[in-house]
Every structure is written in structure tokens, then in C-alpha cells.
Amino acid sequence: MSRINTNVGSLVGQRVLGANNFSLTNSLQRLSTGLRINRGKDDPAGLIASENLRSDIRGLNAAIGNAERADQVVNIAEGGLQEISGLLTELQGLLTTTASTAGLSGEEKKANQLQIDSIMQTIDRISSSTSFQGFKLLNGNFDYQVSSVDSGVQGYSVNAAKLSGGDSLDVEVLVTQSAQQGQLYLSFAAGNLNLGGSGEQFTIEIAGSLGSRELQFSSGTSVADIAAAINTYSDVTGVTASASSTGLSILSNEFGSSQFVSVKVVDDAGATGTDIGVYNFESDDATTINTTAASTFANANNGVRDAGQNIGGTINGLVATSTGKTLRVNSDFLDVELTVDTDTAQSLASVSAFSITGGGADFQLAGSVDIAGKVSLGIKDVTTRKLGISGTGYLSDLGSGKAFNVVDGDMTEAQKIVNSAIEQISGMRGRLGAFQKNVVGATIRSLNIAVENTSAAESVIRDTDFATETAALTRNQILVSASTNILAIANSQPQAVLQLLG
Hints:
about 40% helix; CATH 1.20.1330.10; five-stranded antiparallel sheet; alpha+beta
């Protein structure tokens, strides 16, 4: 080559040296930052994927924080409920103590009443003071707001409901199976028991879900008196009797498959009459007596038994579990329990039970903000005016001068109210515990695993492989050194032309 204006060899050397310097710079940058992708031009598709994964990781970490915060909120609420539970147990003991009238002075009863008043004041104080960052947890702030309650709904409990934005949620019930009591009919064919004038006693054993009693009746005893005698032990047996002109109906006090009526004739004492005996009611009509006797009195020594039936139905299209006249569904979107009256429970029809218009505590336990990633929880008001039995009374009615005080009030009903309050608090504690264990705990564990796997995926795409990159660095260093030497040679090559000039 004898031209000097254009040094092609030098140009080639410059181009190759520039390329090698660029590769060396990339290697140095990747090794110094630890990232394979530092700019979009390094890997456009990889950058998009890694940024999406980084967004997922940030959302998952935030969801873990939300779950931990939810656990702390529920911990504080459960601590208040635990103390209330202890106070209710103490109240139970005071009721039992005061129920013993013999050997208990009026002053002692009044002293016990003072303790009961103090316990109720403390329960109200705990419900109003249990809070998280100033937000009260047990005074109904986290309870659901309900409107348009149907007249056939006797009681309801909304434990959880996912509401979308400001929308309300209608709770629709379809009754597909009627609730029934256990019931039998005893026919005496007359208004009085006829034993043919014998001096023997008609002996019968009446049993229900609570217990049994054996009763004896003389000839000539009226059907109304037999019913009254059975009703005397209604609280013990769980059975109630009602008289008609020629017999009596015996029914379980409550509805449901766990309720029953059993009649066993221990000694019929020669009872006489046309079509006397124990009868069932028609299976499809609880008001009509079957015309065929289930057993005569003489053959009823082994007992005749009839069980009740639970209501059946759906709530918002979901098959509900049932007990007596109570239906419940528990799904990811709705956890509702409601009790209907007898007419509604025995009518196969649809009922617009109520509308949930707001309330509850919402926790975002997923990386994506949508209704599927939200978990809702209801915490009811646990003040004394809310704990108890709707239609009977509440815990506040045990106060001094109220209907169920222990000095001169109805102790039997007071006991039922306290038992119901204990069940309500225990149920809430169990539900909150299940939320912590099965929702929050499982969510934190699964989210941590998701963060690990997502971070690993993002690392594969974006992070530097040091083994590969150090090998590339060494190669690029050698190439840059070689390119530099070659460029020096190419730049010196035109000097040979001077030899041609002499």
C-alpha cells in the first residue's frame, strides 16, 4: 500500500477498537452495578419484563405489610373481647350464687347486684376504649350497616361482605325446605282420660331434646290438665303440649333436626276409647293429623318418636347451612347468618332479607388492588345494650331496677341472656382467631413465597451473571489491548512511503 490520504487499516483498527471499548465499558458497568440491564437499550424486552416484576414485588411487599397490620388490629380487638369474656364468666357465677334464695340475705343480693352493675359498666368501658391509632374497634365502628330488613327476619349477623365501591349488596333468601318441630298427637277420643273406672294410673313418659319426665294420671283427668302437667316440665324436657277437645298435641319447643318429641306409654291402665293412641302429623302438612295411628296406647311401651326438620334454602344463590330456622352462608364474598320467623320458615318462597349498605373493615391482602384481593371483616358492637337475645332482653336489662336484676327480677331469663352473651363473645373471638390463623397467617406465608419467586424471576432477567461477565471483561480487556497495538501499527504504516521519496 503506497497511499497516505486514506489509511484503511487505521480506520478498521479504530472501528474495532471502538467496539471493543464499548463492550469493555458495558462489562465494567454491569460488574460495578450488579445489573445486566442498566438502560432500555441493553435489553428492551427484558427491561419491560423486569419493571413489571419489580412492580409486582413492591405490591406484594405492601400487601405483607397490610396483612401484618391487620393481625395487629385483630390482636387488639381480641384482647378486649378476652377481658369481656372473663367478666361475663364472673357474671354467670354471680347469677348462680344469687339464685339460691335460702340462706341468702337481701343485703347480699344487693351486693351481688352492685357487682353486676360494675361488671356491665366495665364491659361498656372496654368496648368504648379498645382502639387502634384512635379508631375504636368494639363499639360498632367495624359493624356492617344494614337497611330494608324484611319483617320475616327475626335476627341477622353480617360477619363479612365485600362491597364494590359505594354499591350496596342485597341479601336474597330462597326457602326450599320448611322448618319443622317434632310433634305427635295423643288421641283420648274424649275430653277426659277414660280408664274404665279402674284405680290404676295411666303412666306416660314424655321426652324431648332437653330431657324426659314420667307422669301419671288417674281416670277422669281432663285433657287440659294432662297438657298443663306436661307444660310444667317444658323447661326440663324441651316439649310443650296444647289440648284440644279429644286429645293433645305435643311439640318440641324449637325447630330443627336436633329437636324431637318422644312418647312412651309405660302403663296404659286399660285406657279405652275409639281410635285412641299416638298419631303422627302428615309429612307435607304440619297442621293435619295422620288418620292412621302410629301406635295404640297398649303398644306404645317402646315409644313413638318424631324429629323436627331444619329449614333449607339458598342465600344469594349459595346453598346455605341450616339449624332450625337459621340459615348461613360463608364464602369469600359474603358471610351472613339470619333467623326467620315461623311463617317465613314454613313458606317455600323467596325473601328479600335486607341490604348491606356499608361498614366493615377492609384489608387489602393482595398486590393488585381489586375486590378479589380484598378481605372484609365485621366486628360488632359489644356494649351491654347489644349483647343478649332479640325480643327477650339484653345484658343492660340486668342492671339495678331493670326487669332481670338479681334482687327481684326474672333470674331464669337473666340466665338465658348471659348465656347468649357468652356465646356471642365466644363466637366473635373464634371468628377473629380463624381470620388471624387461616386468612392473615396463610396470606403472609403465601405472599412471602410469592416475593421470593418473583424476585428470583426478576433477578434472572436483570441481574448480572458475574461468572459470565468477568470472563467477558477479561476477553474485552485483551481485545482492547490488541486493538490498540494494531491501531498503532496501522497508524505507523504510511511512514514507509517516505522511503519512496529518497
